[in-house]
Amino acid sequence: MLTITHAILHIFDGASNEPLLSHVELDKRSPYIHDYIKKKCEKITQTDRMKEGVLTDDSPVKALFDAIQDDFISISQELSLMLSEMIKSNADIPNADLLWACIRGEDQSSYLAMFKLNHQEAMTHHVDYEDQNLKNDLIINQAILPGIKQGIDEGFLYQLDNGHIQILEKKHLIDESGDREFYLSERFLGQAIKASLKENIGIVKKAVSATAKKYAEADYAQLAQAKEVLNQSIVDQGTIDNDVIAESLYRDKPAQMADYLEASSQAGLQNDEKIVADPALMTNRMQKQKLKLDNGIELSIPIELFNDPNSVEIQNNPDGTVSVWLKNIDEIKNMF
User: Fold this and answer.
1) Cβ contact 41:113 at 8 Å
2) Beta partners for 172?
3) Which whole-number Å values give the CA distances from 139 to 15, 101, 233, in the listed order?
4) What is the pLDDT of residue 303?
5) Which of 233, 243, 281 is nearest to 264 (CA)?
């Protein structure tokens, strides 16, 4: 049972371009506030976008995080001012409400949570009077918050007992550098966080495609094999092992193996490191091979059937075209 010990909402107001800091905590006994915070915690921990790391003493916010239970309101205000200054100084970072909470988990571990609730536009009604007559109007509300079931783009859970942090973040254009940066980790937390499962899978995909392109080969077969190796490694061992991926794809092609390893290493996936990957975070797309043909046909094939010659066969024809054979099919359903 998740227990909320403190919760507060601070606002960055887009109209005034200034923060509006609360001096009173939210009612932590409220069922909908409890459920909202619980769901947002799950949105951080139950996605392949989640990144993990440990804050070091070099972080400019670690001391504030560690002391927040003793002075929750003022420290949450100070942290919100730091984030608000980043929002104010960089137009690409969306305006947002900042929801802070101190939480005790089922294992009695203590956490600090921050959910950046980006503002969204939506239509709503507005009751007004015109010449003493009631008038119902439609207006645009520019500060709608994510619903209870909606995900969030940015936020984190920081474990106060050991400094472990789980974070969701997106790159935004930073005016000072002119580059797109993970500002939440690199500037606010003050340290880089290792790539997420989704980012590491993306690195493998791009490196495989780049290697195939360099050697003028179609990448669909190598991408399919890479996905199968990744899926098996994550499910069976809970890791991503880049050396195993390279060996599986390029066992008899040393030059291509070297190019692949260089491309993936430059993107941040080290060859001699086994990266922990939680199988529970894998999305359904990792269980299927998806092919899009140039004639508009799209195929979604269970990964266990893709390499079964009794089910699927991909044939290269002498004229340079490719044929895809689907075999031993008893029934076809139209998923209208």
Assistant:
1) yes
2) 181
3) 15, 32, 52
4) 85
5) 243
